[in-house]
Write a structure and sequence with these properties.
The complex is a heterodimer of chains A (877) and B (227). With 877 residues, chain A is an alpha+beta fold. Chain A contains 26 helices and 22 strands. Helices cover 40% and strands 16% of the residues of chain B. The chains are: A alpha+beta (877), B alpha/beta (227).
Chain lengths: 877, 227
């Protein structure tokens, strides 16, 4: 309707809030979506010359760690058959193992990448790497060392100092895959308690989605498996990065020294070794004789084909040969071979991006709906007039939709390119914060652009719905009524929804103690969200008594009287200022408070779990070598991955090599329907199968150490307890238990704080828009009122004081309400956590963050309210 | 509270009726009910042969749009639209395209030729009211209701507006019902109804003159006060 355009042009000021909100929302969505879509898995550069890759079949547990290996014999047999195919120049099994260079007794390079730095010499062909000097390795103890870095890594090493090794695929038992999308809020709340460092101790870690009980002993886990812990587990810690930094700067000089010396000192799963350098190759990694690699690796997980003919024909022919023995991957499917550690970094980044998009969309709806409601109330006469001259209710509604759609479209068309332009600027910080893998670049994403504009449109129309419905009910006679007294601030719907939200939140909070442990923290968050929404909806009712109390001391002054009465008669206006403040302060107190409270609880819990003393933990390595453990006079406790089958049920589990029989954790036992004494089929990391009796069901899964040694030669030990002074060994350090746990928690905290900062920052930004816009519009509309005040003898200073005090009162009311609701919810969360860990914990209130958010809201509110007065003064005189 | 009580009024096509009465006598309510802007608690309003009572809000709006024109005391033009756009608004809302030149013709009839592109803020009060009249007349309604059309205008502008209304009746047989408290304005009508306490208590021909009308009002007010 052309009337819509005329309205928009004429009253752009009242649409400014919608415009800014949609602009920002679309920019955030477009930018996040562009970052997300740009972050696609990529096959390692190590396979650049192998267009067809074959992997073992997927057992269907939904976890990459469970993709079984072929035994060396199976792999060789399959490769032999594949090599005979027409167009295949070579079929190369690619066993890998853990190798890390030691320099003056210190491990170098990225710990996770080192898990797959050891290769068979023949696999160099898959990446097109050639001998640049010397000869190929043939005997045990001989090695060809890589002189080149992964090209991708080099580009990123320039962009960000922490270039991640291209080739960090999973070491058996080391990998903690992240694949399930958990509710971001839930994940943050649960994140702190989730067994940081526990897996180092007990070796049985959980993949996300498998839940807390998987860990067996992880009694303090409040949430589901989560991304944030995953990050530190993967070794993507500043520590790991620091050591890697040291490594990558020295890499070039070092190989020359090694070649000159003719030998190199490395750390493997067995311990420190001295290898003879027989040559150099122009790719990354360490290449040993094929037989040697097969002995060290835990089975073979990839066979690469180099081809001379059409890759598609080779793919089809290979599929026929491989049949059920594996999966043939060509083209984009090769990208599934991206190392899990890299995929998980992308996943963590995706969590943040998803959270930003969700929050951005919700906040936009919120701001648009409050702006539209206010502007509809202000335009009551105008809308009534339209009704009087013949507009049907439907036409009024459609006009409101048309206006908003127009604004949203303009805002979106400007916002999407803005977000898209900003996205590449975020790539660097995201990489350095461990949210995207090294080498990450943002590519042109038209889908993100179009999708964001569309989403902005939908979100804006969603936001205007309530206001448009209300506006369509305006009677034609309203055009004749001069008085613009505050219309009813509470509609029946608002009452009903508000009360329902409040009751729902209260019930959920009350029911928390009876809920299953793992759903409690999400229930707490859900309850808080419901209570916050309820408080926001009912704020017009709640604000009246609050204002009476707060304004009481000043009731005898002129300003006090004006503020009090102005607020009480303009409840709707005050409520629309207070509601966003309520939401943001509530969210801040709740999120930051939950994290802080659980952090303290986790610290208590972790330290309580371990007796006083020291532990031996990896130092710049992905795990402890066998030699590092035996040097302490202790038995290695290898971490390995088992695929356990009972009947037609199969489950993948982390297990510790310990004792002399198979013990199953309770969750697995329940899941598989196994009782002590039953027989199960166990498939080991190297692809070998054995039928073993389950001796017992206990806290965690363990398997005889001898079997791990035989079937997972590349396995490492996570950590061991020390009962005496540690013997210094490369790649390990002795730390006090408390210190170790706190370091782990701090490390997790870094990521969580980043998430919190981004989310609270975004919601605070939206609050700023909502508060600023509401006050700008409201004060501007009260022009006549202030004029009358001035005519009655008030100076501009006094008018300003009244306006500022009203704004502050509204912000204070919102902050107090939001804070109260959040504290109530927080107390519920604490009660649940206390119940869970069985001891009292302190409620930690994030005073700093709350004060910062509230102050920012207050400052902005005063500015926005005062601005129209100061501007109006000029036009009045 | 009863705003109107047993009022039975008929406005014949092509006549100009003025409704007078003291404040609170129900004259505005009568106008709003007759125009279908307000609902009756009892009784019936028939506009151009259509009983209004059972209509939905939408049907009522359509009826109003097609058969009823309305002129307010405070002009009530949409500030965002130009004079021509304001005039064309009822037609556009009805989904009709104004015939070429129709809007210009109507604006010319009210003496605003050449002001088509002006916005309300660029027009004087009298001019704005004339735009409002043009807007009410453009759809050739069966009846035009005017609520104190001269109330906010100076004497000269008021006279011009009244002359316009009179011309519409004489030239186009336009039916007009006008609420006013100005005896001079009422004198331009064919018939003057006097309302007090929600009832019609008397009527005079407009030709009786402003003075007699004024006397009648004074009498009515006196009646109300002494009762």
């Amino acid at each position: 309707m052309s009337a819509a355009w005329a309205m928009v042009r004429h009253r752009f000021a009242s649409f400014a809030g919608t415009f800014v909100a949609v602009f920002l929302g679309v920019a955030v969505v477009a930018g996040s979506a562009a970052l997300h879509l740009s972050s696609q898995p990529q096959a390692p550069a190590r396979y650049d010359l192998a267009p067809v890759l074959i992997t073992p079949p997927d057992p269907g547990t939904g976890d990459d760690r469970d993709r079984r290996s072929w035994t060396p014999a199976q792999a060789t047999a399959l490769a032999t058959r594949l090599a005979e195919l027409e167009g295949v120049t070579a079929a190369v099994p690619d066993p890998w193992f853990y190798v890390q260079r030691l320099e003056s007794g210190r491990p170098t390079g990225d710990a996770q990448a080192a898990l797959l730095d050891g290769h068979a010499w023949s696999s160099a062909a898959l990446g097109g790497y050639r001998l640049t000097d010397g000869r190929a390795p043939t005997a045990p103890g001989e090695v060809v060392i890589g002189t080149g870095k992964d090209p991708r890594e080099i580009t990123t090493a320039i962009a960000a100092p922490d270039g991640k090794g291209s080739g960090s695929t999973t070491g058996p038992g080391q990998e903690r895959a992240g694949g399930s999308t958990t509710d971001p809020g839930q994940e943050r709340a649960g994140g702190r308690t989730t067994g940081s460092g526990q897996e180092q101790a007990d070796g049985s870690t959980t993949g996300p989605g498998q839940g807390r009980a998987d860990g067996g002993t992880n009694s303090a886990q409040a949430g589901n498996g989560d991304a944030t812990t995953g990050a530190s587990r993967s070794g993507d810690t500043p520590e790991a990065r620091r050591s890697e930094n040291g490594g990558s700067t020295s890499v070039r000089g070092e190989w020359q020294a090694a070649v000159a010396a003719g030998s190199v000192t490395v750390l493997t799963s067995a311990g420190p070794e001295e290898w003879r350098v027989t040559g150099t190759v122009d790719g990354p990694g360490f290449y040993v004789a094929d037989r040697e690699a097969a002995r060290r690796a835990s089975g073979v997980r990839v066979i690469g084909l180099t081809v001379s003919g059409d890759p598609q024909r080779v793919t089809d022919a290979a599929a026929a040969v491989v049949a059920a023995e594996g999966v043939v991957r060509a083209g984009a499917e090769r990208d599934a071979l991206e190392p899990n550690s890299v995929t998980r970094i992308r996943w963590i980044g995706a969590q943040l991006l998803i959270a930003l998009v969700t929050l951005g969309a919700f906040a936009t709806v919120f701001v648009v709906s409050s702006t539209c409601a206010l502007s509809a109330a202000q335009r009551r006469r105008e809308l009534g007039l339209l009704r009087a001259v013949g507009a049907t209710p439907g036409q009024v509604r459609r006009m409101m939709y048309a206006e908003t759609a127009l604004i949203a479209l303009i805002a979106g068309l400007l916002g999407a390119p803005a977000g898209m332009t900003a996205a590449p600027l975020l790539a660097g910080p995201m990489v350095s914060n461990g949210l995207e893998p090294a080498g990450f670049t943002v590519t042109w994403q038209p889908a993100a652009l179009g999708g964001a504009v569309l989403l902005g449109l939908i979100v804006a129309l969603g936001g205007v719905t309530a206001a448009a419905r209300r506006a369509s009910r305006i009677a034609p006679l309203d055009a004749l009524r001069e008085a613009s007294a505050d219309p009813r601030s509470m509609t029946p719907t608002r009452w009903v929804v508000g009360v329902l939200c409040g009751i729902g939140g209260g019930v959920l909070l009350a029911a928390m103690p009876s809920l299953p442990l793992e759903t409690r923290s999400s229930a707490g968050l859900g309850a808080a969200m419901l209570l916050l929404s309820g408080a926001a909806l009912l704020s017009p009712v709640l604000i009246v008594p609050l204002v009476r109390v707060v304004a009481r001391p000043w009731r005898d002054t002129a300003t006090g009287m004006l503020v009090r009465e102005g607020t009480l008669t303009g409840v709707r206006r005050v409520a629309s200022t207070a509601a966003p403040v309520l939401a943001t302060v509530g969210l801040t107190v709740l999120l930051a408070g939950t994290v802080a409270t659980i952090e303290v609880a986790a610290g208590i819990d972790e330290t309580a779990r371990y007796p006083a003393g020291n532990v031996l933990v990896p130092d710049g390595t992905p795990g402890l070598s066998a030699a590092a453990v035996t040097a302490q006079g202790a038995e290695p406790a290898f971490t390995t991955r088992l695929l356990i089958t009972h009947g037609d049920m199969t489950a993948g589990r982390d297990a510790t090599g310990r004792g002399d029989s198979l013990v199953l954790d309770r969750l697995s036992a329940a899941e598989l329907g196994v009782r002590a004494g039953d027989g199960v089929t166990v498939r080991f990391a190297d692809g070998a199968e054995a039928r073993l009796p389950v001796q017992a069901v206990a806290d965690e899964t363990s398997v005889p150490q001898e079997l791990v040694r035989r079937h997972d030669p590349d396995a490492l030990t996570s950590m061991i307890m020390l009962d005496r002074e540690a013997v210094p060994v490369p790649g390990a350090q002795s730390v006090a238990i408390h210190e170790f746990v706190m370091a782990e928690i701090d490390e997790e905290g870094r990521l969580i704080d980043l998430f919190l900062l981004a989310l609270i920052g975004l919601s605070a930004g939206y609050t700023a828009i909502a508060v600023g816009n509401t006050l700008l519009m409201a004060t501007a509309a009260r022009h006549g009122e202030f004029r009358a005040l001035r005519l009655a003898g008030a100076g501009t200073g006094q008018v300003l004081r009244v306006v500022a005090a009203e704004a502050l009162l509204a912000v204070a009311a919102g902050a107090v309400l939001g804070g109260l609701v959040a504290v109530v919810s927080l107390a519920g969360v604490r009660a649940a956590v206390e119940d869970e860990i069985g001891r009292d914990i302190d409620l930690v209130l994030p005073w700093g963050a709350t004060a910062a958010v509230t102050t920012a809201c207050a400052a902005l509110a005063v500015l926005a309210a005062a601005f129209p007065i100061l501007r109006g003064r000029r036009s009045d005189s | 509270m009863t705003a109107l009580d047993r009022v039975d009024a008929r406005f014949e096509p092509g006549t100009f009726t003025a409704v007078m009465g003291p404040s609170g006598s129900g004259k505005s309510t009568l106008l709003h009910c007759a125009a279908g802007l307000d609902r009756l608690s009892g009784g019936e309003v028939v506009i151009d042969g259509v009983p209004v009572g059972g209509l939905t809000e939408r049907a009522l709006t359509r009826l109003r749009r097609a058969r009823v024109g309305f002129v307010f005391q405070s002009f009530n033009l949409v500030p965002a639209l130009t004079a021509a756009q304001n005039v064309a608004l009822p037609l556009r809302l009805a989904g009709r395209r104004p015939e070429p030149g129709a809007v210009t013709t109507v604006l010319a009839e009210v003496g605003l030729a050449g002001r088509e592109e002006h916005r309300p803020s660029e027009l004087s009060g009298g001019q704005q009211q004339r735009v409002a009249i043009a807007r009410a007349l453009v759809s050739r309604p069966a009846v035009l209701f005017a609520d104190e059309p001269t109330g906010a205008l100076d004497a000269a502008s008021g006279t011009a507006v009244l002359r316009l209304l009179r011309e519409a009746v004489d030239r186009h047989r336009q039916t007009i019902v006008m609420v006013t408290h100005d005896p001079l304005a009422a004198a331009t009508a064919d018939r003057v109804l006097f309302l007090a306490d929600g009832r019609v208590f008397d009527e005079l021909p407009g030709a009786a003159g402003a003075e007699r009308i004024a006397l009648h009002i004074a009498h009515a007010q006196h009646t109300v006060v002494t009762r």
